[in-house]
């Protein structure tokens, strides 16, 4: 069938070249997806799906999502796409909690009042 012919034109090396052109994080995800299958050819469809997300969402967002996927070990098409759709690919900086202090005021009793 024609869909089999399409995949026969691809090889792991060709997929890696495409992934590297997007970014190292994407290439690492592709490597993990290929290694997760018994035969590399079984991973081609998932790899093509991941790589095509670069066209839909942009290479920068895809690379960021792949960085997070590599960090958490969730290298799958569905997880990466979900991350991008929800905008979770951005690395959030932890916000410092503001410590509130009690203002000085004549109506506020101190600890001495309760001693």
TrEMBL record:
Protein name per its UniProtKB record? IS21 family transposase
Tell me what organism the protein belongs to.
marine sediment metagenome
């Amino acid at each position: 069938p024609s869909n089999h012919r399409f995949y026969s034109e691809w090889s792991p090396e060709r997929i890696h070249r495409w992934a590297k052109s997007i970014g190292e994080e994407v290439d690492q995800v592709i490597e993990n997806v290929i290694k997760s299958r018994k035969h590399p050819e079984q991973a081609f469809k998932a790899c093509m799906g991941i790589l095509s997300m670069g066209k839909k969402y942009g290479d920068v967002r895809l690379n960021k999502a792949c960085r997070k996927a590599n960090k958490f070990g969730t290298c799958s098409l569905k997880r990466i796409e979900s991350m991008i759709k929800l905008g979770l690919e951005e690395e959030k900086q932890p916000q410092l909690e503001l410590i509130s202090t009690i203002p000085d005021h004549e109506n506020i009793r101190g600890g001495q009042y309760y001693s």
